[in-house]
Amino acid sequence: MNIPDKVKIGNINYEIVKTQNELIFEDEPVDGTISFEESKIELNTSNKSKQYIEETFIHEMVHGIFNYMGINQSEKLVDKVTKGFHQLVIDNPGIFEKDPRDEKINKFSINLKKRLERVTDN
Questions:
Q1: Can you give the pTM of this predicted structure?
Q2: Which of 37, 44, 65, 93 is least enclosed, having the fewest CB within 10 Å?
Q3: Helix or strand or coil: residue 40?
């Protein structure tokens, strides 16, 4: 799984910040935070496994999705959705990768449109 530098949740673009520093939320140490006001997700990657960092990233995105959709959220609910979604991604590698055929179709459509424009301009 790839953790990008930014992610769009609803109409908000969130910056993803990976840090080695301790993160604090409500006076407690945490491994990830999401700031709706700053449009930022922070992940503490210090001494964490790849799988754990991925789950933390998904966890924060689930918070973002719930917030965007106005869903009441508890840590217990977010944790359950996170574990299910992370397992889905692990069990189905490439599920969210772009299909190269889509790019070919898009290029074909653009070229066809340009050709039609030239024909109708004459």
A1: 0.77
A2: 37
A3: strand
